[in-house]
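Hi everyone, sorry if this is the wrong subforum. Our group has a chain we'd like a structural model of before ordering constructs, and none of us has done structure prediction before. Sequence below.
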Amino acid sequence: MDKKAMYSLSYGFFVLTAKNENRDNGCIINTVTQVTSEPNRITIAVNKNNLTHDMVLKSGEFNVSVLSREASFGVYRLWGFQSGRDVDKVEQIRVCRSDNGLIYLPEGTNAFLSARVIESRDLETHTLFLADVTDGAVLSAEESATYSYYQKYIKPAPTEKKKGFVCTVCGYIYEGDVLPEDFICPVCKHPASDFVPVAG
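Answer:
Right subforum, don't worry. Here is the predicted structure as C-alpha cells:
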C-alpha cells in the first residue's frame, strides 16, 4: 500500500493543550472531529508517546487550538517536533487561558475549543477520546491550515542537494544509500515509511 494515499484525507492541524497539577503542555495532533452537534461532541486521537496524552488521560480536560494558514513553521516545530518531557514549550510562546484554566494559542490560530472527556478507547499506539465541548471562540477569519497546505507552503524545503532520504512530515534528511526499515525520524518521530529518496 502507498501510505502517501492517506495524505489526501482532509486533515487539519491542531495544538492540543492540557494541564497536570501546575504544569501546562501541548502537542500537535491532526485528528479532531466533530461527531455530534446536539450534544456538541468531538473526538481526538492522541499518540501515547506524547506527554500531553498522559495529561488528558489523567485530568479529563483539554483545549484544542485550530491552526490557521498564518501559523509559522516555528509553531509546528515548537509544538510538534519536541517533547514536553525535554522542554517547557509554554515559556517560548504567548498563550492565553480559557475559563477551564487551560492554555490556548491566540496567534496563528482561528479558533479554540475547550472539552471534557466522557469516554476513551485504547487504539494500541493512540487513545481516542470522546469529549463534550464546554467552550470555544473564533479568534480570526483566516482559513484553517490543512495537511496539504502545510506540505506546500509552510514546511521548509531542503536547501541543499544531499544523497539520502527526506522525511515527508518535517523535512529532516537522512544521509546514506539505504534507509534502515526501523529508522525513526529524530525530529518528528515518524517511521521510515514517511521518508522518500532525495531528488537528485
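For your construct planning: The chain is about 10% helix and 40% strand. Residues 17 and 31 are 14 Å apart (CA to CA).
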